Amino acid sequence: MLYAVKDWDNAYANGPNIAGGERWPGLWVAPAEAYRKELAGQGRAKLDIAYGAHERQRLDLFLPEGTPKGLVVFVHGGYWMRLDKSLWSHLAQGPIARGHAVAMPSYRLCPEVGLADISADVAQAIARAMDQVGGPVALTGHSAGGHLVSRMICRGAPLPPERQARINSVVSISGLHDLRPLQRTAMNDTLHIDDATALKESPALLLPVDGARVTAWVGGAERNEFRRQAQLLANIWTGLGASTAYVEAPDRHHFDVIDDLADAESGLVGALVGR
Fold first, then answer.
1. Which residues of 180-196 are buried (b: 16+ CB within 10 A; e: fewer)?
2. Which of 126, 149, 215, 258 could form a cystine bridge with 141, CB 3.0-4.6 A?
3. Mind listing the pLDDT tens digit for each residue in 106-118?
4. What's the CATH code, domain 8-273?
């Protein structure tokens, strides 16, 4: 049977297609604030580290007890148009329990800047975090953040090769890897993705760096387009020499698919920092 997307806005709409979806992002606020305060009280949180002059070019860095084994960077989503680093602090619990430092940046948003500028912001933030923490680096991001971390391990990325060389793994959670379908949505009035931007900023249309290791992680209860986008990156990059995995988390939707980052024993944290 032939299949075609009839409504591109609905294909990429998450909240309206999740029971109780209106509860997010509000459900993340309290646990994120509580964990941030807990680590700050222990002297293990460095908040609002500047990596640029803009007020949104700031990152939070959370530290484990003792010397970090390495660095994890989590990049938030919000369709490149909304949200910030403050909502996700509690998700650092899993990697921190495994001995890794965790950096969480904010970045400038559309329409003030374009996607290439946002990619550059994320590269700057990662470099700043790398200067703070030694050892191997793992990148993960959710939704638009999944796009951004995947972009960091493409050839010609705004992250320099010597920085890319420190990246041991990338986990794109519900990532958007081919931007062309988003040109068909109403949100593109804000994103301003033209053909040139889609070709330049879509990881699935670019070459991964040598030795790239990426897991495309997605909820089994997500919209078809998000599952297809995850499959797409794993499929194409396998043929371009990357080491890839595609994982569907059973029954997880677009908002709770990231919850396991807070669990040190979860498969998601294992994919990110090893078991």
1. ebbbebebbeebebeee
2. 149
3. 999 999 999 999 9
4. 3.40.50.1820
